[in-house]
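help with these C-alpha cells:
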Amino acid sequence: MFKSNLDKIIERFQQKGMIVVALRVGENIDISDIIASLNDEEYVKIIAAGGDGTINIVVNAMIKNDCHLPLAVFPAGTANDFAHYFSIPKDIDGMIDIAVEDNYVSADVGKCNDMYFVNVAAVGSVIDVSQKTDTNMKNALGVVAYYMKALSELHALKPVEVTIETPDRSFTQNIFFMVVLNGNSAGGFRKLGSQSSINDGLLDVVMFKNMKIMEIPKVGFNVLRGKHNEDDNVIYFQTSKLKITSPEYISTDVDGELGEPLPLNIEILPSRILINTQRIYEIGGTVSAENEIYDKMNKEVQ
C-alpha cells in the first residue's frame, strides 16, 4: 500500500507546508537511534505505519529517548487494535486526512518492567499466539489468522498459579491466562477491556480462571459481547499498578512481542503520548482542551 501511495502522502503534506522524511525500518536501521538523534523543534510529528508491534517499537523508542512529539498512526498491520481505538480508517486517504491536521488527544502508556506497551501485557497459556502465527497467513487472513492459531493451541491450555499484588488487594489464583490492558482490545477482540479508556490513568486487568474445557466457548462468547466481566470464570478489575509473580515459568507477551520473565511490575504512565486523531472523536471530553494546549506549545516553539 505504501509503495504505491508514498508520492500521494508526500504531496499532501507538502500542500500543508511540511516535508516528509521517509524511513524504512529494518534489521540495519534502529528506530531508537533515529529518534535519539532528532531535534524535536525541527519536526512536527512522527508517523508510524504498521501494526501494533510497529507502534510498540516506536513508542518505546520515543519514551526511552524522552521524545514528546505527537504520533500519527497509519494502520497497516493485522489487528491494528491501537488505531481502531481512535477510529483511524484503513484507507490511505482517510489516514492522511487525519495525519496532516493538528488534532490530538492524550493516551496513557503501560510500563511492564523495562518495556512499554500501548495495548496489552499478557501472561499464561496460549498468549503468544501473535508470535507463533505465520506472517503469510496473517497477510492473507488478517486477524482471523490469530483466531485459527488460537484454536489450534487450545490443547496446550493448562492452569498456572499467579499471585497478584495491587495497592488495594493481594491474592493468588489458578488461571489459564490474563491480560493487562491499556486500551479496550487485543488480538482483534474489540471488547476485551469492556470498561477501559485509554486516558483514564488505569489498567484493566482481565483474568481467565482455571475452568472446564466445556465452559470455554461460553466465556469466549461473553468476551465477544463484552459481557465477560459478569462471568464467574473471569476476574475483572482496574488498577494503576500491579505485580505478578508465580512459582513456575510462565510465558509473557507485550503488544504481540515476547515479554520479560516473571515477576512483572506493571504500571500506567498517564497521558504520556499525544495521538493524531479526528477532532470529533470523543475520549473523556479532552480533545479540544488538548488541542488548545498543543497549539500553545507549538506557537512557543515557533
